[in-house]
Amino acid sequence: MDYKHGKGVQVEADNNPQMMLYALGALEIFDGIYDIDSLSMIIYQPRRSNVSTFTMAKVDLYQWVEETLKPAAELSYAGEGDFKCGDWCQFCKVKQDCRKRAEYNMELAKFDFQLPPLLTDEDVEEILGRIDGLVSWANDIKEYTLQAAVGGKEWHGWKLVEGRSNRKYTDENVVAATVTAAGFDPYEHKVLGVTAMTSLLGKKRFEEVLGGYIEKPQGKPTLVPESDKRPAMNTAKNDFNEFEEDK
Ligand code: SF4
């Protein structure tokens, strides 16, 4: 079982090479002690309410080792093989200055960043599938260049300046006392949010006292790949079509 504390990316166990490597490690230790025919790999990611399980026969795991893992490891050990970009780049140590990642993302420049009306639906769909990676890469480059500049590196045509900042109190206690003495209330009074209120009352008491006053509004529409587990939303067009069919 792999406990994943992150919530940025939901990780599935299905044919996940990381989990298959862990399973291989478990086999190394336990295969001589127990009769093992199959292995269940579980990812537990509580902050995404995700429990993902994948079960694989031992023979299939060893087949993957021979056909996929070993050849790839040998190439890597010899300093050969191809770089491959994907979602995993965001966890890579050289993600900021990897040339392959830069080339991969710059491929989108072939669209000349034209506005969608000038692109075909297929163009837009291709861009859509790669845009998260592009944004993530662009942010990594910004962070990398900023940190290097703070460390003293000079980028031709660029300089470090102070960003905008907001005024703030030097001592909140003194401010509160001074405003109170002047006859005003220095505090804003707000009802605690759901999370803070749950901590205050405890889950059980929260349900007893406030259960009838909680609602979960519909989430903001988000365009995700078809493989996403969430059911598709009803759009106004769907509703209209259903209405027309019912007429
Ligand atoms: S950033 Fe480069 S080296 Fe790292 S995983 Fe992506 S392609 Fe491979």
Automatic annotation (TrEMBL):
Official protein name in the record: Uncharacterized protein
One Pfam family in the UniProt entry: DUF2800
Region (Disordered): 217-247
Xref: InterPro entries: DUF2800 (IPR021229)
